Amino acid sequence: MDISVIVPLYNEEESLPELHAWIKRVMDANGFSYEIIFVNDGSTDGSWKVIESLSKDNKEVKGIKFRRNYGKSPALFCGFERAEGDVVITMDADLQDSPDEIPELYRMITVDGYDLVSGWKQKRYDPLSKTIPTKLFNATARAVSGIHNLHDFNCGLKAYRKEVIKNIEVYGEMHRYIPYLAKNAGFSKIGEKVVHHQARKYGKTKFGLNRFVNGYLDLLTLWFLSKFGIKPMHIFGFLGSIMFILGFIAVAIIGVNKLYDLYAGNPYRLITDSPYFYLALTTMIIGTQLFLAGFIGELIARNAPERNKYQIEKEL
């Protein structure tokens, strides 16, 4: 099979027949063998009935229905598990992503040799309340991930080699960082294509400012796991050691100062009367706790089942 198209959706019953007809028209015109996997993420409207109707009349249409709303990442994860095409295309169900982009995305994967191609909605039809946070988010994601050639990490229209989606795990709300997940899995040939963005035709946007905040937290989590996920002692042990040493030096300085005053006959006060003593002691305690956190993290990492899971590209 040439292409699997995965469409996660939530309350998009009006757009589904039009989207299916558009995808089918493009696929038939280019002679692709394909499947369309609609993942119904706990919709409360008639989306699933539409999917059932489309599946009944079209053998290429498949559907997955969640019992409740889990989010886009779980929807993509289940779609990736079921996908059988050599190239996997993901797109949103709101008709803002154009299926006319599929042939070129397919060519970039199969001919140009990209592992992943992400769409870039260079001209958007979204309100400023969405476009401005998106620009800030993408700038931060480029800096943290090191993937400097991508302008739109969160674009729903993407193309993947099958090997990519079978070797990454999309969870939580990590769908925003699939290129970063792919890079961490060893798939470094990541490209971008300017794609046409259309104004929403039906329904309303699911975007909220909470996603902007959560996106940054997820990015920090992914960065930390990619850097220190299998070597937590390198960060916790280092910070803990630095804090303990600084605290110890501070306590030593306080003690030496008192001994000097005693020797010189100067007025002095008890070490415990100095606030700096308690600050130094607290620093030593926090340093010890951080070091122990790193040690416990190492024990957990040592017993993790995927500790020796490596991406092997070829064997002879």
Automatic annotation (TrEMBL):
UniProt EC number: 2.4.-.-
Organism, scientific name: Phocaeicola coprocola DSM 17136
Protein name as catalogued: Glycosyltransferase, group 2 family protein
UniProt KW Hydrolase keyword: no
Cellular component terms (Gene Ontology): plasma membrane
Boundaries of every Glycosyltransferase 2-like domain copy: 4-167
PANTHER family: UNDECAPRENYL-PHOSPHATE 4-DEOXY-4-FORMAMIDO-L-ARABINOSE TRANSFERASE (PTHR48090:SF3), UNDECAPRENYL-PHOSPHATE 4-DEOXY-4-FORMAMIDO-L-ARABINOSE TRANSFERASE-RELATED (PTHR48090)
GO biological process, one term: lipopolysaccharide biosynthetic process
GO molecular function: undecaprenyl-phosphate 4-deoxy-4-formamido-L-arabinose transferase activity
TM region positions: 235-256, 276-301
Pfam family of the protein (one): Glycos_transf_2
